[in-house]
Write a structure and sequence with these properties.
Structural class: alpha/beta
Number of strands: 12
Mean pLDDT: 90
Number of domains: 2
Largest sheet: 6 strands, parallel
Distance between the termini: 29 Å
Order of helices and strands: HEHEHHHHEHEEHEHHHEHEHEHEEHEHHH
Length: 450
């Protein structure tokens, strides 16, 4: 069952405002594209943005990406990242206590908005034809409140836990409403002083084209074909046959695979961790030369990363496999990347990536093979994935060709795929649509998974 709301079937009914810093904020926005009136708006890069605003945003983005790329470098990288991470620190959840006092990052954000005018031009522009405003980054939401945006203001949280910086200076008086991806964020928002009536437990929004409506028609088929690849010896299916048939449907366990075993390594938006991908490629090169295994190296929109991958392919003399068993996926812009990514993950069996916002894609029945984390928020994403049983920690990438296939033969990845599908929510985009439009959606209530 898909939505029949005119917001989706026509040209959108809300402004969806993101920032192109990393992929997380844009990934959430892309999943809400059906709601986006006039398309997704990049708060840091929209037509007519004042030069001073663009400069402020650019400085922030370059700083984050530079430190992220330094992270793998011993000593220097550790020190630089520790300083940045401390500023964005997520406080311990227990013991539960009042965490509503604004921190340094909050005060800095308000200084840029109130004293330097960051975001004022955009909010005044949107205020001329007000619609519900859905932001995937806090600065835009804060600016909307400061500059008296006349419509409702919503803020989508993009990780399994969140820093105080995502909550306004005076949360008890704020009218910003939050879309929480999981139960931990719901409870965290309360500790930060957000009124309970301004918190919606929606789940992270995932693209409708990989879900297939409220009955998960596409997602279910993809999951069963994936399990065929991830459980070659039938260990998982034999043990959980009745459970699978009950949930997915009679005959689901008889489906045949429609693609070779496919692994995707996805580099983050800051371009960090490409060396890890090169280590993986070196390890599995002999397996790639045989039938039954495909590797995608996802460079996203990072041309330099794609070039590094190509150098490694040439060095290992694997050029003959390009476009057949080995793919370097690079896209010229973000809209193309997100569109093609949604197509590609339907034929992907394992995603190997740092536990970023991609963690929520485990809801599709995609097991997440977790690379080392970068930042506090990713530590919490990792904890969440482990908690629901959908994430598996990588071991030494130099020996990928050994442990990866041992884990597949054991049915371990099939189990992680199933856990993700069962425990993580698929219908975040549909819940958000229902809240924004005020229309009741026939979506199940989410459990308070911490």
């Amino acid at each position: 069952m898909t939505s029949t709301n005119k917001c989706v079937n026509q040209k959108g009914c809300a402004y969806v405002v993101s920032v192109n810093m990393g992929y997380g904020h844009d990934r959430a926005a892309f999943a809400l594209k059906e709601l986006a009136y006039g398309g997704i708006i990049e708060a840091n890069d929209y037509p007519g943005i004042p030069k001073k605003d663009k400069k402020l945003w650019l400085q922030s983005r370059k700083g984050y990406e530079a430190v992220s790329r330094l992270k793998p470098i011993p000593v220097v990288g550790d020190i630089a990242f520790a300083i940045m991470d401390k500023i964005q620190e997520i406080a311990d959840f227990y013991p539960r206590r009042d965490l509503s006092d604004p921190n340094y990052q909050t005060r800095q954000t308000y200084y840029m908005i109130e004293k330097m005018g960051l975001g004022k031009h955009l909010i005044e522009k949107l205020s001329k034809d007000p619609k519900p405003l859905i932001c995937t980054f806090f600065t835009a939401a804060f600016a909307a409140e400061v500059y008296d945006y006349p419509g409702d203001i919503y803020l989508q949280i993009c990780d399994a836990d969140m820093a105080r910086a995502w909550v306004p200076r005076d949360p008890k008086k704020s009218r910003i409403k939050y879309f929480a991806p999981n139960g931990r964020v719901v409870e965290r928002l309360k500790l930060y002083g957000v009124r309970e009536g301004n918190i919606y437990h929606t789940g992270f929004p995932l693209p409708r084209e990989v879900i297939g409506g409220l009955d998960n028609s596409i997602c279910k088929k993809d999951l069963m074909r994936r399990i065929c690849n991830l459980d070659p010896k039938g260990i998982f299916i034999k043990k959980y046959f009745k459970t699978i048939e009950t949930e997915i449907g009679t005959g689901s366990c008889e489906m045949k695979k429609d693609h070779p075993l496919t692994l995707m390594f996805a580099v983050g938006g800051a371009g960090a961790q490409q060396q890890l991908a090169i280590d993986i490629l070196s390890s599995v090169k002999s397996t790639l030369r045989r039938d039954g295994f495909v590797l995608h190296l996802m460079a996203g929109t990072k041309k330099s990363v794609a070039q590094d991958f190509m150098k490694a392919v040439t060095k290992l003399k694997l050029n003959g496999l390009l476009g057949k068993k080995l793919f370097i996926d690079y896209y010229p812009d973000r809209p193309t990347y997100f569109k093609e990514f949604s197509k590609l993950i339907r034929k992907t069996d394992i995603i190997w990536t740092k536990p970023s916002e991609m963690s929520f894609y485990c809801a599709l029945g995609l097991p997440i093979l977790m690379a080392p984390t970068i930042g506090s928020q990713e530590d919490f994403n990792r904890t969440w994935l482990m908690y629901i049983g959908a994430g598996i920690e990588q071991t030494d990438a130099k020996y990928t060709n050994e442990w990866l296939f041992d884990w597949i033969d054991s049915g371990g990845f099939a189990r992680a795929a199933w856990n993700g599908y069962m425990e993580a929510p698929q219908h975040g985009a549909y819940r958000i649509e229902g809240i924004v439009t005020g229309e009741q959606m026939a979506v199940e209530e989410l459990p308070m998974i911490i």
